[in-house]
Amino acid sequence: MELKNQKLIIIDFGGQYNQLIARRVRECGVYCEVLPYKKADISAIKSDRPVAIIFTGGPNSVYLDSSPTISKEIFELGIPILGICYGAQLMAYSLGGSVKSAPTSEYGKTNTDFKTDSVLFGGLPEKSVTWMSHTDYIAKAPDGFRITASTPVCPVAAMEDPERGLYAVQFHPEVNHTQHGSDIIKAFLFNAAKCLGDWTMESFAATAIEDIRRRVGDKKVLLGLSGGVDSSVCAALLSKAIGSQLTCIFVDHGLMRKNEGDEVEQAFSDWDINFVRVNAEALFLEKLAGVTEPERKRKIIGEEFIRVFESESRKLGHMDYLAQGTIYPDIIESGAGDAAVIKSHHNVGGLPKDIDFKEVIEPLRLLFKDEVRALGLTLGLSPTLVYRQPFPGPGLAVRIIGEITKERLEILRNADWVFRDELAKSGIDRDINQFFAVLTSMRSVGVMGDGRTYDYTLALRAVTTTDFMTADFARIPYDVLERCASRIVNEVKSINRIVYDITTKPPATIEWE
Ligand code: XMP
């Protein structure tokens, strides 16, 4: 996409906080993109004319031959550069300073002294806490640099050469543990690099719409809509851009929560698009009959989904483009490759491989999740839709332990609905990032009225998390849990026992399957 705004480039040397840096920069209204160092071609950067460059951290030592590096020419482009952690060491090493390995690492919150007449730390306290995570350190700053921060074990915790526009910090200003981290990033963006801060969601939407119109012309676009945040925002954006040239296929696999299929259809009923809902519950249930193994469930649903999507799209005649709601973290993260498969994830929309499309368009490919939400609101989607919790592609199938039947789905839907209703009534739903009910395959004895029951145990799961990679169980007050339990056993048949899941992730996962 051709952006009219200024762009900052983040050169990624393999640091764990690369996305966080990008988000912090964008929060300041400065558009940025993350570029792996291997792809950081100097002439390309030169013609791209970024307003500034940031080097991320990384796990290596600068003086190893195999370590990530970048041509020294980058320091001569006249573009302001901020090096963070490994990026700081690389700057020092490349420009003639010295980097050494310390006998012990400096890790965690660290008291740091600052020179407050510097560009980066002007107006900040002389002492504050920074977040460190390094073994190597800059032992000597290169000529021309002034040392602007230090810690008891790190002589050069920051250095700068404003004349050349070069700045470096050993600590991580992007993490919250660094006390004035955002101010330091702002000082780099606005004082050192003179950024305008002109990037807003309105400007992104306007550029994206123009771009889609130019690319698609009078051709047709197909989108798989799940009702999740990404595909919904994608649909809204495309609808603004090309209206009825867009067709959305919503495959209702019958594994949605109570009323959800109708809500998705309702949400898009007023939009100027072609909306096709495929009610495929019977088909999915048939394929899932007797299947209890979690990975098989996931595979069956993923494959069936593609098949239904393909056969529906064939009925529509030729479509030129396939749109997908891919977002920026998917792009930055792809390529890691060797992580163990914990669960095979399935995302509605990103699937068909052998349908004949001219091209794939991914209008959200440059946005982070919170930006996708902001864009959704800008485009007029309802807050309920925009702030929806994540819902796994395989839906309730991974929240029913054991066999999936129409009857068990109904039990889970009703119980899950009561849980959601009670959390909403108590007002604590806003503090919990994801919550749902799980129907176990365990049955136990209970007593109801004068009779013995032998029914299912239902588990309630509620977590707080920022990234869904790790999670803590939510501390729901006992009286709220009590109301949930009492209503569920009274209102939902076949459940006589409720348990609350108090495991964190790791070692548990958020979903049960
Ligand atoms: P786990 O269970 O792995 O889940 O801790 C992490 C987050 O991912 C969601 N999830 C999925 N999302 N397709 C998705 O789009 C999937 O197949 C899938 N499985 C899990 C889960 O709800 C949680 O938010």
What does the model show?
The structure is a single chain. This protein has 513 residues and is of the alpha/beta class. The protein folds into 3 domains: 7-192, 3-Layer(aba) Sandwich (Rossmann fold); 201-386, HUPs (Rossmann fold); 399-500, GMP Synthetase, Chain A, domain 3 (2-Layer Sandwich). It has 14 helices and 18 strands. It has helices spanning 18-27, 42-48, 86-94, 181-192, 201-216, 229-242, 260-267, 281-288, 294-315, 328-333, 369-378, 383-386, 406-426, 478-491, and strands at residues 7-12, 31-36, 52-55, 81-84, 98-114, 127-140, 146-150, 158-161, 166-169, 221-224, 246-252, 274-279, 321-323, 359-361, 434-448, 451-464, 472-473, 495-500. The strands form 3 sheets. Strands 2-1-3-4-9-8-7-5-6 form a 9-stranded mixed β-sheet, sandwiched between helices. A 5-stranded parallel β-sheet has the order 12-11-10-13-14, with helices on both faces. Helix 5 (201-216) crosses helix 6 and helix 5 (201-216) packs across helix 11. The longest helix is centred in the middle third of the chain and has 22 residues, at 294-315. The radius of gyration is 26 Å and the shape is globular. Xanthosine-5'-monophosphate binds next to loops.
Short structural summary:
This protein is α/β, with parallel strands linked by helices and 513 residues long. Helices cover 31% and strands 24% of the residues.
